[in-house]
Design goal:
Number of strands: 0
Order of helices and strands: HHHHHHH
């Protein structure tokens, strides 16, 4: 009789245990987790946008690529946001590549309608990266 009670207790405890929430394995899952759980997702997005604009400005002003300051800023963003920062930057790069391909193929885009014919790289980033 005691064995039956202990077995019933073990089964009850097993069925009613709290399950740990698994961390998402994919970058999409990490992005979603960052957006839903983080209070500073907007500030991280602003940092990434500012980093892209600084890279464009450095390119226009003939600043050496892969400077120590740029690498340290990128490391700070990645330390703060994790792999999600890489995902966001890759997504922005993919949007810009799609925009360039559409323009080369003569397809009208909403960015072209917004900026007109006098688009600068900074204006394109401002139009594409909406926060």
């Amino acid at each position: 009789m005691i064995e039956f009670a202990l077995l019933t207790l073990v089964i009850f405890l097993f069925l009613n245990r709290k399950k740990k929430k698994r961390k998402p394995c994919t970058l999409d899952g990490q992005l979603q987790e960052l957006i839903t759980q983080s209070t500073d997702a907007t500030s991280i997005a602003v940092d990434i946008k500012r980093y892209l604009l600084n890279t464009i400005n450095d390119n226009n002003n003939d600043v050496p690529k892969f400077s120590e300051a740029q690498i340290l800023e990128a490391q700070r963003i990645i330390d703060r946001a994790g792999p999600v920062a890489l995902y966001w930057m890759s997504d922005i790069a993919a949007q810009l590549a799609t925009l360039s391909a559409a323009q080369l193929n003569g397809l009208p885009t909403n960015v072209e309608a917004k900026l007109g014919s006098s688009a600068t790289p900074q204006a394109v980033v401002e139009a594409v990266v909406t926060i």
